[in-house]
Write a structure and sequence with these properties.
This protein has 166 residues and is an alpha+beta fold. It has two domains: 129 residues, no CATH class; 31 residues, no CATH class. 22% of the residues lie in helices and 33% in strands. It has four helices and seven strands. The strands form two sheets. It has a five-stranded mixed β-sheet. The protein has a two-stranded antiparallel ribbon with strand order 1-7. Strand 3 and strand 4 form a beta hairpin. The longest helix has 12 residues. The protein binds zinc ion (ZN).
Length: 166
C-alpha cells in the first residue's frame, strides 16, 4: 500500500488517469520539522486532465489533518488539510526554472517521466502550511505572551521581534 509511486506525469494527464492513495505523515521527511506529531495518514487523489486550451494538468487533492505547534503557547494545534491544487505541466523545464506565469489559480511544474507522487504531495502540503500556526485567541493557552502582545499594541510581529531581541 505504501510502495513508492512514480508516474510519467504528462502521459498521466493526457490519458486522464486517476490515482488515489494514503500516505503516512511519518514518511514525509521535509514536513517533520513543522509537525508536533507524525502519527496519522493523509488521503490524496491525483487526477490527470486537459485544461481549457488542451494543456495537460494534474489536479492534486489532499485531505487529512496535521498536528502543528502553536507558535504562541507551544501546545498542539490541529490543522485540517483540504488542498486542491491545479498544476500545469510544462515540457522542457526543470524544477529550478521559474515557471511563474502570473496565473494565481494554476501552478506550473515540469513535465517528468518519473515524477515521484509522494514528493509532489509533500510539496503541496509544504506550500499550504501556515507560516506561524496559532490557536484562535479564546483557545490559546499562551496568555502570558498574549498580555505582552497587548502591551506592545497588539502587534504579533512586534512580540516576535521583542522575543528575538532577548
Ligand atoms: Zn496556542
Amino acid at each position: 500500500m505504501y510502495e513508492q509511486a512514480v508516474i510519467d506525469n504528462l502521459d498521466f494527464a493526457r490519458n486522464g488517469r486517476v490515482m488515489r492513495g494514503e500516505a503516512r505523515l511519518a514518511d514525509f521527511v521535509r514536513l517533520q520539522s513543522a509537525l508536533l506529531s507524525s502519527q496519522g495518514v493523509l488521503n490524496y487523489t491525483l487526477s490527470g486532465k486537459a485544461g481549457e486550451k488542451g494543456e495537460p494538468l494534474l489536479i492534486c487533492s489532499i485531505d487529512g489533518k496535521l498536528i502543528l505547534q502553536c507558535q504562541r503557547c507551544l501546545e498542539a494545534l490541529e490543522f485540517p488539510l483540504h488542498i486542491e491544487s491545479r498544476l500545469r505541466l510544462v515540457q522542457g523545464a526543470t524544477q529550478f526554472d521559474d515557471l511563474g506565469d502570473g496565473d494565481e489559480e494554476v501552478d506550473s511544474i515540469p513535465a517528468n517521466t518519473e515524477m515521484d507522487v509522494l514528493a509532489l504531495v509533500e510539496d503541496e502540503i509544504l506550500l499550504n502550511l501556515p507560516m506561524a500556526p496559532l490557536h484562535s485567541p479564546e483557545l490559546c493557552q499562551g496568555k502570558g505572551v498574549e498580555r505582552l502582545a497587548n502591551e506592545k499594541g497588539n502587534n504579533p510581529f512586534g512580540v516576535l521581534a521583542a522575543l528575538k531581541v532577548k
